Amino acid sequence: MADWANIWIALVLVAGSMQKSAMRKPSRPRRSVLYVPASNAKALAKVVSLAADAVIFDLEDAVAPNAKEDAREALRDYFRTNPTSTAERIIRINALASEWGAEDLLAARACKPDAILLPKVETPQDVTNVTEVLEETDASEHVRLWAMIETPRGIVNADEIAELGLRSTGRLDCFVVGTNDLAKDTGTSLGQGRAYLVPWLMQIVLCAKAGNIDVIDGVYNDFADAQGFTAECTQGVQMGFNGKTLIHPAQIETANRAFQPDEAALAQARAIVAAFALPENAGKGAIALDGKMVERLHLDHATTLLEKGQKSPS
Ligand code: COA
Ligand code: MG
Q: Does CATH place domain 25-259 in 1.10.12.10?
């Protein structure tokens, strides 16, 4: 009887660990994520020459109400003439419930970006509503969803929202923090190293990690202040963010450098992957490497790090 119980527990544990390792998604570097107002022709034209890992083409806050239609048209033209890109491309639409949301979603879907970014997400339903529209219109599964967490309610519900990242059929890939909206809605200052925002930012980071999705830090508004921007990038790295949203090309290089895994960490990751690939280690859960224990969870982490570190600092 005791033997059967042991076998049963072992099977449950193996199934659990297989499920966990199956959950690991392929990663892309998202060190620098540049907002580009879709209504700004000059900025749009500049995108192809920039070294940002990802670009968010904005139809929301950066576009005035009377320019929304032209901005959508400009985006359609842009994606028609630039069908491929080395940078990940995301389109931020207005909220589905707003007067522009439905048209934005149709336009964004037609552009076939890597992802659509939803503003002011406050409940899982805000994401699943858009998922349903994408499913009903047979949008390619390659079109992912990113969610802005930028309101008090969004933070309170961040755990439930991030859980969508664990669904194999879900499209949620990434949280983006909207620090300007958060500061506005809560009366919190963005100064002093964001001291009063940090607890909420950490909560968002934690929820994203629990949901196995990436999380990108908010923007630094003073794009002429290189020193302040560098300090905030360093803070973002230490807090566990995968990258930073940017408003100006001058911020790209600093973000790429700050969020790039360092060479020592990459070398260690290569060593772990090589060690687990040895025939004598096949099927082993834990091995010794340079006198230290290394487990398969370290292999997952190493693989992710190497995927993210593919691009060298620009
Ligand atoms: N993306 C691409 N190119 C940009 C850019 C951006 N976000 N911001 C500026 N540029 C370009 C300019 O068009 C200009 O191009 P040029 O060399 O061909 O003349 C060059 O970079 C230098 O720009 P600069 O003159 O320093 O700034 P600006 O006055 O043109 O623009 C802002 C300043 C803040 C209006 C602009 O950076 C911007 O709109 N940023 C994004 C705002 C946004 O999306 N907000 C919503 C999310 S918070
Ligand atoms: Mg906002």
A: no
60 Cα–ligand 2 center, Å: 8
Q: Which residues contact 15 (CB under 8 A, 6 or more apart)?
A: none
Ordered by start, the domain boundaries in the chain are: 25-259, 261-314
Atom 27, ligand 1: residue with shortest CA distance: 248
Q: Model confidence over 136-189: pLDDT tens digits? A: 999 998 999 999 999 999 999 999 999 999 998 899 999 999 999 999 999 999
What's the half-sphere exposure (Cβ side, CA atoms, 13 Å) at 101? 13
Q: How much is the pLDDT for 1?
A: 52
**pLDDT value of position 16:** 52
Query: What rounded mean pLDDT belongs to the chain?
Result: 92
The reported pTM is: 0.89
Q: Report whether 191 contacts 236 (CB < 8 A).
A: no
Question: Relative to the CA of 246, which ligand 1 atom is closest?
Answer: 7
Distance separating alpha carbons of residues 17 and 66, to the nearest angstrom: 53
* pLDDT value of position 21: 41
Distance 247 CA to ligand 1 centre (A): 7
Q: How far apart are the C-alpha atoms of 6 and 236, rounded to whole Å?
A: 45
